[in-house]
User: Fold this.
Amino acid sequence: MKHKILDRLHEEKGFLSGEKLSEEFGLSRTAIWKHVKALKADGYQIESVTRKGYKLVSSPDIVNYDEIKEILHTKIIGGKMIHFNSLESTNKTAKEVAVVNDEGTVVVAEQQTKGKGRLGREWISPNRKGLYFSVILKPDTDPTKVAKLTLLGAASVNRGLLDLGIQSLIKWPNDIVINGKKVAGILTEMSCELGTINHIIIGIGINVNQSKEEIPYDLRDRATSLLMESGKAINRKELFAAILNRLDQFYMEFLQDENMDGVLEICRENSAVIGKDVLVIQGGNSRKGHVVGINHSGELQVRFDTGLETVFSGEVSIRKEDEYI
Assistant:
């Protein structure tokens, strides 16, 4: 109900009386006041004046459904959004609620206290400085094709950034880089049994408005933020909606005939590794190779001294010898 009251406050330019809200929603004045109090607790600045009612003064810098629905144009992704001020990890929570929530549900948090990246690495997630969200997908497809969906996430972030005029590159399979430094990561996790997918979680973390001082000192040579690279604060709501819109577009194409040609082309054209000499690190071993391309299955093609090989995502890291990428 508080969401409906918020909609009415958004629509009204001046004060909206508690009596009118009571009549519209069939609630007591006390119930209306409680919902307004809850909105204030969420960070909405609402002026309350006796005999005049309530007036929305400003909205907080939060990324919930109410704040992006006017610019969200999706068919599946974001149909339901579960918003938290703080979570250990959006992927962890998404996995916990995936069974009882429809495909396309988005779990989003303003901060993560135990954010997780690929290979178990920590993802630093300060409050309202980045975007931290996970999308629940339930495609009727073979589990062996799931690796492609990480590239779907990467392509969505790349295109969403471009929609805001920000150029970026994709470091196969799941990192977004700007000027050779990581600005975003994608973590894809799957639950399946007997060849059937229960759900897939695509988790996305983006450093948006962190200053240099807010990037851990030991990561500053390989991590950055959109603020640091562009020199200006980025509207998190616009970026969030842009990425979800792109993710929905690409996922709908995948559902139609499992065609990922457009996504793969984006990943190839905006690759940070194709044509580069890299170190392929697997376990405790590393090998020098030259990245030739990305094949139709989304796997990396690397030429080693021993010949051309297909490199699968998973326990593999790609690095240049002297820098992050």
